[in-house]
Amino acid sequence: MCIAGMALAADQPAPHFASGIPDFSSGNMGWASDGVEFLPMPGAKFKPVSNDPAHPYCGNRIRPECGNQFSEPVADTSNPILQPWAAAQMKQTNTAILAGKPSFEAMSRCWPGGVPGMMLFTAEPAYFLQTPQEVTIVYTRGQNIRHVYMNVPHSKNPPLTWLGESVGHYEGDELAIDTIGLNDKTFIDWYHTPHSTKLHVIERYRLIDGGKKMQGTVTVDDPGAFTTTWSALHYFNRNNLPISNAEYVCAENNDAGTNYFHEDYAPIPESNAPDF
Amino acid sequence: MTVWNSIRRPLLALACAVAAVASIASVRGADNAPSLSGVWWATSYNPSMKAYLVGGGDIPLNDAGKKKYAENQAGLKDGSIVDRARKYCTPDGLPRSLATPYPFQIIDAPPGQMTWLYEQNKMIRGIAMDKPLDPLAKLQILPFWNGHSAGRWEDDTLVIQSGGFNESTFADATGLPHSDELQTTERVRKINGGKQLEDVITIHDPVYYTRDWQARFVYDNHTGMRLMEYICGETHRDISGIKGINEARAANAARARGR
From B203's CA, which of A43, A239, B33, B139 has a CA 20 to 30 Å away? Predict the structure, then answer.
């Protein structure tokens, strides 16, 4: 059974290479996440985790429903996709956040954000470098690099890593990416939705609105954390900063000792002894 | 077969693929320029840039350079200066990045650019092709760890000019200094029938050097090898087979014991 690509927006012709493959680099530019949440698929029975209705989440957006200030992500742990242990863990996180503890994300302290979590980091663009053998996704944030090997199968037993092992292929106007081999140190989203090492993610990217936007769909399968397979949508906006002008070194000012980034909560990656 | 079971199969996506193996033939445009794309890996490592110096001899430090170098060496020895590239895995800067004992990948993309991805420290060098490098004063407004770079082809040689470096890096692992006036020119080409890559870098930094000087780096072709994740403090690829690594690690350990 294939996971069918879904036409969810009225499309105009989007940039393509001469071979017909969609050009996700669209003239040397990147893609910035539109918002910080996964959106439900229209008509889907199961939805991604969203905010507790009593606690609107606005991320870095100032909105009246958030009291015109930044909000912290308090999860709706009644979402039926969550296995009991996952919901219980998230309730503890909610309690801590509501008590004023920082809403910690590993990515805030220079650790990779995982898959699909990397999709939700908003401000710095992601670049899709397309070659016949590989699509390399460069997330400017933290300079995290995903190597998507094209038209090859997964390794038999890939090691568990922060960004996993990704293979991909094109289906018409879509780039489909299949990822396994993810460690369980990251969250699915900003609601601190946990996952296990059984996580299997399929992403599909397509250009919409004539290439002005990119649509990503994600299908998440993790029998270690979820009661069912679920899917979600996310959108990206063009960011015209060329990759040659994009350097983001997370550890640059992240150890300043001011505790602004909650250094007391989690250390940034560092080496006790020089590697070489 | 349920949806649940069906997507659990890692190979499913491939089975569903609609023959999409058409090549991206013109990612770089139709200029037919030689490509340096692939994975490249040095066979040896030396912490001192002097080992890579073209023509041998000493690196031509001026008085200010000698003073700064001595300060850096003393600080690294007693721990008062932190080598951020090794403690926090920030970028090594140029020319130190070129001495990496880890593999790196050159990608002819996105269009109009070339991207160099280093396994070590997740360094990224985006090189704008066929456009001049901005004046140094403009580049210095937003200095980068690995500088800003622009490239062009001269026959089969890629010429990369870089400038706009911050002063948070050393020119080598021994603390060799550079200033924010550092400007470099690299001439990169395949040698040995494409089995190796040569990168000769010219260092121009009148703040610390009496004249321009050059260093030469050679890498073996490992195209097909996959770069690995590199997270600071975690276990990395085994590079003990790289000549000079064990000696460098022993020297670092001895320095740490001496504090």
Answer: B33
* Cα separation, B8 vs B251, whole angstroms: 49
Flag if B22 and A154 touch (Cβ within 8 Å).
no
User: What is the predicted ipTM?
Assistant: 0.89
Encoded amino acid at A108, one letter? S
Place of tokens 């290479």: A17
**Model confidence, pTM:** 0.89
All residues of chain B having their beta carbon less than 8 Å from the beta carbon of residue A171 are 16-18, 20
CA dist A27 and A127 (Å) reads 11
pLDDT in tens, A116-129: 999 998 778 999 99
Inspect the interface and report whether the beta carbons of A251 and B89 lie closer than 8 Å: yes
- The C-alpha atoms of residue B60 and residue B38 are separated, in whole angstroms, by 34
DSSP character for B112? Answer: T
Contact between residue B167 and residue B179 where contact means Cβ atoms under 8 Å apart: yes
Interface test with B, best of A178, A249, A250 (most B CBs within 10 A): A249
Give the distance from residue A29's alpha carbon to the nearest chain B alpha carbon, in angstroms: 8
| Distance in angstroms (rounded) separating the CA atoms of residues A245 and A252 | 17
CB contact under 8 A, A251 and B22: no
Choose among B4, B14, B27: nearest Cβ to A229. B4
Task: Write the pLDDT tens digit of every residue in A114-160.
Answer: 999 999 987 789 999 999 999 999 998 888 999 999 999 999 999 99
Q: Answer yes or no: are the C-beta atoms of B173 and B140 closer than 8 Å.
A: no
